[in-house]
Automatic annotation (TrEMBL):
Protein's organism: Salicibibacter cibarius
Protein name from the UniProt record: DUF2757 family protein
InterPro entries hit by this protein: Fin (IPR020115)
Pfam families hit by this protein: Fin
GO terms of biological process kind: regulation of gene expression
């Protein structure tokens, strides 16, 4: 089992962590509400976890343009 991080805005793949390397605590899951976790995490049929997060450039873009938060996806 592994955890895959993708940018939820531009789809960039941001890395993969095998769960033998990281416990949930290290990933910051314990600071997320249960609802946040359920929205961000998707488990595929193979049991791998996919995390929808923001990459740095999208994070900056949304910080500068808060209304972009309302869009599901855009192209850089
Ligand atoms: Zn992005």
């Amino acid at each position: 089992m592994a955890i895959y991080y993708h940018c939820r805005q531009c789809g960039t793949e941001m890395g993969t962590i095998s769960t033998s390397e990281a416990k949930q605590r290290d990933l910051g899951f314990d600071v997320l509400s249960r609802q946040d976790q359920e929205e961000m995490m998707h488990v595929d049929q193979a049991g791998h976890v996919h995390m929808d997060i923001l990459c740095e450039s999208c994070h900056e873009a949304t910080a500068l343009n808060p209304e972009l938060h309302e869009q599901q996806r855009w192209v850089h």
